[in-house]
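tool_call: predict_structure(chain=1)
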Amino acid sequence: MQDRHNIHIALPRRPAIRSALENALRAASNLHLGNYDLTDRIDDAEVVVTDSETQVNEIGKLPASVRYLQLIDCGSGAPNMTDETVTVANASSLLVHDPAGWAIDQWREIARRSSRTREKAPNIAGIIGFGSLGYELGKRLNELGAKIWVNDIRTPKQMSFQSVGARRSSLDMLLSTSDVVFVAVHHGPTSNPLLTLRELRLLDFGATVINMSGEKVVNREAIKMLNDFHERDIDYREMPSDLGSASASRRPRAATSWVLDNLGNYALNHQPRSIVEHVTHPKAGDPAFWASRMHPRQTPV
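tool_result:
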């Protein structure tokens, strides 16, 4: 008989998903889900299911008992709040369409604005982070005819770049040649921020930075300083922080099914889908394509 796992579901803002998960776990319609016992106390839990907002604002640092954190959105599990032995998974592969759609709307709006002001329309897109979200962005930008640069500290399969018409680039080259830069990473312990004054100074005058990775990844004070002194005219845009969670709420059945499948994988000692890698010093990767200071500072979304 397999060991039983205590699970705590903390979804105060997502009652439909919470109720569906609790009912499924109690019913144990799948045999392996019968290995879970619901617990009201997070201190007793081995597994926690929550969203990023609840984890950061209400849970904080996870207790030592927790071994698996399942997020229902595209969050990263706040690396400073989780022990390195905790497995963290999110639902980014399921939910990338809404964030990607929001980003493409920004690209189109910039193009429309350029046509009104008779400025050069955006043509070169830089994507920092080539995970599920970066790949979806690449596909959509390729369909719009954009030239695409990608920077990633890992070494994804070459075919994944070719399938979206993208070319790999160093971070410095990407920043200095792109009209619009999309930041699609989970920031790690050494990426607060990833784009500092040094990196932002590499941007062309009038470039746009679209941050899909949280406020800590880009130094907004540096952007303000560069713009105030007319050294750069950076158009900075930040994705709404609750977009991923809102996507899950609009698709409660899909989100619930995703989480249940991952819980089943965990119970059977299989790797859950959409694992979040908080990269510090990866065992594999091509140093030639790491970030500008030559050490890894981000994980793709």
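agent: The first strand starts at residue 5 and ends at 10. Proceeding to next step.
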